[in-house]
Amino acid sequence: MIERELTVSNRLGLHARATAKLVQLLSAYKSNATLTAKGREVNAKSIMGVMLLAAGQGTQVKLRVDGEDEAAVADKVTELFDRRFDEDA
């Protein structure tokens, strides 16, 4: 299991487009992934679940990945957060 602390840094936070990018990325992997923020834990492969976090800019999010390709998943999700979901051009 891998856990990472991430910060939502894109201006609009985890809104529909950013969440769709995250879920699409995760769908290519077998590992289970969860996000925790504001006391809520959700399945990171669920668009509705991630949207329920209502994670705006600056929100601290914990990513937990468990499975056979967990290292790749954790790295790719971290890169997506670091790139601000490719939104802040």
Q: Secondary-structure element order, as H and E?
A: EHEEHEH
CATH architecture: 2-Layer Sandwich
Structural class: alpha+beta
Shape by Cα distribution:
globular
Spans of at least 5 consecutive residues whose pLDDT stays below 50 are none
List keywords for this structure.
89 residues, four-stranded antiparallel sheet
Can you tell me about this structure?
Residues 1-88 form the HPr domain. The protein has 89 residues and is α+β, with helices and mostly antiparallel strands. The chain is built from three helices and four strands; from the N terminus they run E-H-E-E-H-E-H. The chain has a four-stranded antiparallel sheet. The protein has one domain: Histidine-containing Protein, Chain: A (2-Layer Sandwich). It has helices at 16-27, 47-52, 70-82; strands at residues 2-7, 32-37, 40-43, 60-66.
Q: Can you summarize this structure?
A:
The chain has helices spanning 16-27, 47-52, 70-82, and strands at 2-7, 32-37, 40-43, 60-66. With 89 residues, the chain is of the alpha+beta class. The relative contact order is 0.32.
